[in-house]
Amino acid sequence: MNPVINLFPPSVPNGETAAASSTIPFSSSVLDEESPNENKAQKKRKYPTSKPFKCNVCDRSFNQRIHLKKHESKHTGIKPYKCDKCDYATVERSHLRVHMRTHTGEKPYKCEYCDYATAQNSTLKIHLRRHHRDANAVDEVLDGL
Fold first, then answer.
1. How many angstroms separate the CA atoms of 93 and 100, rounded?
2. What pTM, to 2 d.p., does this model score?
3. Backbone φ, ψ for residue 24 (5° rounding)
4. Could you point out which of 34, 59, 63, 124 has its C-alpha 20 to 30 Å from the C-alpha of 71?
5. CA contacts within 13 A on the Cβ side of 75
6. Which CATH architecture has domain 49-78?
7. 103-115 pLDDT, tens digit each
8. Backbone angles phi and psi of 15, in degrees to 5
């Protein structure tokens, strides 16, 4: 028997319960295995273990073509994301977004134990390890970053 995945929440806007027609059977045939837990099966599909996309320059391989393309741009030296305030350029848009905080002064990562704030979560992790190692629940805070 296959599990069922609800396509809608238990309650729809008009107050009625979702009809039985709003469910579909979950099939794990994509994985070639029985899976009693659809979340586990969905994760396997989302993050496949095979990495068929191989870089021609180095020995890295990836599970998605888009990840290979992003990686290959590191070999070419092409940096399409450029800062309009200085000469900084990067291969990844997220790196430019973090860089822009140096110009705006935005510091969204704040320490729970003192008034320290920073632009990067990695810098907050370093701060917590250096200055608040003995504080309660520091490891939990670090895990959440």
1. 11
2. 0.52
3. -130, 150
4. 124
5. 11
6. 2-Layer Sandwich (3.30)
7. 999 999 999 889 9
8. 95, -15
